[in-house]
Amino acid sequence: MKNTSIVGDPQYHYINPTTLAIQHGDGWQTVTKCTSETNPVLAYPTIPTESSSAAPESQPYVAQAAPTLPFFDWNACPFEGCTYGEWTAAAAVEVFDTWKPNRNRIAILPTDSVVKGVSGVVITYKPGVIRLNADLPEDNLQRGDTILTYTYRGEGFSAAWFKGRFYRDYDITFAKWPDGSGCLGTDCAGTYVDLGEKVWWARVKRSSGVVGWVNMNESKFGGVDQFAFVAPDSRLFWRKHPS
Questions:
Q1: Cα gap 94→8, rounded to integer Å
Q2: Is the dihedral of CA 218, 224, 226, 229 positive or negative?
Q3: Residue 151 in contact with residue 73, Cβ under 8 Å?
Q4: Are residues 72 and 160 in the same domain?
Q5: What is the pTM of this model?
Q6: Which of 32, 67, 90, 153 has the fewest CB atoms within 10 Å, i.e. is most exposed?
Q7: Same domain, yes or no, for 119 and 202?
């Protein structure tokens, strides 16, 4: 393109200080600077050399041993559409001073009480177990291998660990759930053989300013699921834990 800047022009491609590629239609023409001795002296712009290879992609997992139990997933909101914010009690809800075992009840929220969901934690006391019915070569998994599952994320994704790798978001849509949901048909690559024991505690703030904790396994609030009035029974919380 005549009388245009080379820097930033997509029709020019810098190769090295003396070589330039110019686009013509669908092809490229390579030109070489014949001399650097000019009169008057010309100041050629310096353009950073482009890397010949793309930047390496970050790994979707962390290499580590299986998480120590209990496993705390702080600030997790464990299903698709889950959100912290203004919640409305769909039934009476017990409020505690902490999520810890030595907690004390500090209030009971009446139905239709409004609170603010501030944050929370999903505690895994026992991970779920998926057993492979078929090989998954892309993840170096073979039939008979097991996957440990932790916080469910929604839409078929879960925190998971196997073969020394921890995934914060791992696609488990290939697994059939005990209730028959999940993967459908006879060719599912995995089956949940143990759903594990997990509890979701949420930190809520009342209009009075008092802050407490509620066991979301046993509580019903509207506004938790942005796609519905009352949060559904999550498959995270299949089994109560005496926490």
A1: 62
A2: positive
A3: yes
A4: no
A5: 0.71
A6: 32
A7: yes
